[in-house]
Design a protein that fits this description.
The protein has 739 residues and is of the alpha+beta class. It is 61% helix and 7% strand. A hairpin with a 5-residue loop joins strand 8 and strand 9. The C terminus is likely disordered.
């Protein structure tokens, strides 16, 4: 592989005009596609195989035209202090608002609070339920404006009015912190390379890659039913890996220049060696992201595949566009150890006088491997302890910032009607096979009324045929509580006996039941997903490192870092530690998708650092150094770059903590802290400590397996025959711009 990539690197350097033109054309094509594509509709959220989804599908069949997935809005009215909404003036304002809400072209129904028993017992709070034909993301701006205008008109007449539900759904905002993250990445690159030009290349290529990836997702969003979160996550991961992959290629290029090679030869060797590591690191990320398909949640699968596509683009750009741009840069990209004059050039000799920080750290770890190993494991173990208290759920309006009207509506409804009112359960009774459908439904209603934590059971609503009924059940506890989850399981458990007695089938659905089913499905899929992703990556790393113990150590180190990161997420988002600093206004269960998503993404990124750092050690070992020397050599060449890459990735992920979407905020924090743990504790401390303890055994591979495995030559052994080819006299270097 190294020889093949070496040829690609030289070709891209030599034919840089052609390569640059191709990527600019692809960016333009993706941009045009994004601007001309129809606006994306709502991203459908279906969970195949769950009871909640089966109930929704049944409702679509038995209640045609009901728009079970249509947007809803709860317009909540609160009377001024000391008054009631039933007072003459206040009642007139509410009734007028209801009439205004009914005028919308996309409105299917509006329930009057006074005829629908939607007034609190103390008479201070009431709500009007508005149902629409289309989902929240498909709702026209005119309908949203009419909803807001009706609410404002009621406010002007003295009532407190807030709007809950998904009718006001909006694309999440990331805020200024995302830009700050990129700015930090730029500063780190300048410090690492000592050159503005060299620092600008990874940023430029990463932005091009993300531009192509996100524009393509936007262009296909309507056709493939992709939501806004898909492009946000693709941007997050694409930026991080795009900068990192380019960083490793440019760093190796500068190292080759420092050894006295011509620039074209240096570009070829950089792509042949560091580029091989980029390919395999990218493959592990792609495997981890595409592997999310095993969960069988379409939305999660689409997110994973879209992000994997962006990673693949980042790999291709690193292998082709980076060497092409290096050709344009010419002498403006300095050999390793040199800086541009603007940033203090001319002091290279002094910098070479003492070993760098990576060399000193690796030498220390090799001398004290047991102490470093114990300290690192104990530290990560302590950070992982909160993960034992992990509670899973999906965000609702109760997790919104308190400044939003959705959150204020949620709080008003909880105050007026009880905490369970915000998460009603919809019980669907399929009595088609029952001899007495209405009697079966009555049995279901009576049984549910007798259960614990049930506050209200509404009269059943039948379909036209009279063989299917909907019953709304209001729990006494909030939607995300364990008590409500027990109630859902209790109703479903009672359904078995009802079916045996009456022939009717009972299904529980609604957003609360759907959240419970999603959490269970994700929990059930976690172990198979881990086995698939870690197993495939383990086999891939055996091929890369030609070792059994090194990939095993990489996988175990990943489990430590991801568990510690989950512990940090629990501490912040569930327990509330440092929540004010991070802008977390409401603590509660961790998002159900978080563990499995973190496993997928963090595993891929963790293997990046493993591949980049350990391939340098493997390369030194293959070239004749003893195990201890190889560790030090790997750190001398790779520690600075891996550190810069980790800081950049942490900065990019941290930039998404400022998002208005709780899911994006949590993912940004989780990935940032996971990269910190994995890069600086596992890869920079535990990896060299374990390798030092293993010694030569670390690179052991059974002879029969050695014969079977393909030789991918990640270390560039095949290029050793070219050791003296392409060398130049640095003093005779020539300007390549325009050549």
């Amino acid at each position: 592989m190294a020889t093949f990539l070496y040829k690609i690197g030289r070709l891209a350097f030599r034919r840089r005009h052609f390569v640059a033109l191709i990527w600019v054309a692809l960016l333009t094509l993706a941009g045009v596609g994004a601007t001309s594509a129809p606006a994306a509709g709502s991203s459908s959220f279906s969970i195949p195989g769950t009871e909640a989804q089966k109930a929704f599908d049944l409702l679509e069949q038995r209640f045609p035209g009901m728009s079970a997935d249509g947007a809803t809005a709860r317009v909540v009215f609160e009377a001024p202090g000391g008054e009631k909404v039933t007072a003459k003036h206040n009642k007139a304002v509410v009734e007028r608002t209801v009439r205004e809400l009914r005028d919308g072209s996309e409105v299917t129904s509006v329930a009057d609070p006074f005829t629908g028993h939607a007034v609190s017992k103390d008479g201070t709070i009431a709500y009007a339920q508005v149902k629409y034909k289309v989902s929240g993301m498909e709702l026209e701006d005119a309908s949203k404006d009419a909803l807001k205008q009706a609410a404002q008109s009621a406010r002007d007449d003295g009532l407190t009015v807030e709007i809950g539900g998904d009718a006001l759904s909006a694309v999440p905002e990331t805020g200024a912190t995302e830009v700050i993250g990129i700015a930090i990445a730029a500063v780190v690159l300048v410090i690492t390379f000592g050159s503005l030009v060299a620092a600008g290349l990874p940023l430029l290529t990463a932005l091009i890659g993300v531009g192509i990836g996100v524009s393509t997702i936007t262009a296909l969003a309507n056709a493939l039913d992709l939501g806004s979160t898909t492009s946000t996550l693709a941007m997050m991961i694409g930026l991080a890996v795009g900068i990192d992959y380019a960083l490793f290629i440019v760093s190796r290029y500068r190292a080759e220049l420092a050894e006295g090679r011509e620039r074209e030869e240096a570009a070829g060797r950089a792509v042949g060696t560091a580029g091989s590591a980029v390919v395999f690191a990218g493959l592990t990320v792609v495997i981890a992201l595409v592997g999310l398909a095993v969960v069988n949640i379409p939305m999660l699968t689409k997110m994973g595949v879209a992000a994997a596509g962006t990673v693949a683009i980042a790999v291709l750009i690193a292998l082709t566009l980076i060497p092409a741009l290096l050709g344009y840069a010419g002498r403006k990209v300095k050999p390793a150890g040199e800086k541009s004059r603007m940033l203090g050039g001319g002091r290279a000799a002094a910098a070479k006088a003492r070993p760098n920080m990576g060399t000193r750290w690796a030498s220390f770890v090799v001398r004290r491997p047991v102490a470093v190993l114990l300290l690192g494991v104990i530290g990560l173990g302590a950070a992982a302890l909160p993960a034992s208290q992990l509670e899973l759920g999906l965000p609702d309006d109760g997790s919104q910032p308190t400044a939003t009207t959705q959150r204020r509506a949620y709080d008003l409804l909880s105050e007026g009607f009880g905490p369970g009112f915000n998460g009603p359960l919809m019980v669907v009774v399929d009595a088609k096979s029952s001899e007495h459908p209405k009697a079966a439904v009555a049995t279901v209603t009576d049984d549910i009324k007798g259960m614990r934590d049930v506050v209200t059971v509404t009269p059943p609503t039948y379909n036209a045929s009279g063989d299917t009924a909907m019953i709304t059940v209001v729990p006494g506890s909030k939607p995300s509580s364990a008590t409500t989850e027990d109630l859902v399981h209790g109703i479903r458990g009672a359904g078995t006996g009802i079916t045996a007695d009456t022939g009717a089938k009972l299904l529980v659905t609604g957003s609360t039941a759907m959240n419970i089913d999603v959490s269970q499905k994700l929990n059930d899929a976690l172990i198979p997903y881990l086995a698939l992703v870690v197993g495939l990556a383990f086999l891939l790393l055996i091929v890369v490192f030609r070792s059994i113990l090194v990939p095993l150590k990489a996988a175990l180190g990943f489990l430590l870092s991801v568990t510690a990161a989950l512990g940090a997420v629990v501490a912040v988002f569930q327990w509330g530690w440092l929540s004010g600093l991070l802008g977390v206004e409401e603590t509660g269960p961790v998002m159900s998708m978080m563990p499995i998503f973190m496993v997928g993404v963090v595993f891929g990124l963790a293997m990046d650092y493993e591949v980049f750092l350990v391939t340098r050690m493997r390369e030194a070992h293959v070239h004749g150094e003893n195990p201890g020397q190889a560790i030090v050599t790997g750190f001398r060449h790779g520690a600075r770059v891996v550190t810069a890459a980790a800081v950049i990735m942490i900065a990019v992920f941290s930039g998404f903590i400022g998002s208005s979407e709780s899911m994006i905020k949590m993912i940004g924090f989780g990935l940032a802290i996971a990269v910190f743990f994995d890069a600086f504790v596992v890869r920079m401390a535990l990896v060299p400590a374990v390798l030092a303890l293993l010694g030569g055994k670390a690179w052991w591979l059974p002879k029969w397996l050695d014969r079977v495995l393909p030789n991918v030559d990640v270390e560039g052994e095949g290029l050793r025959t070219r050791r003296d080819e392409g060398r130049r006299d640095p003093d005779q270097d020539r300007e390549l711009v325009g050549v």
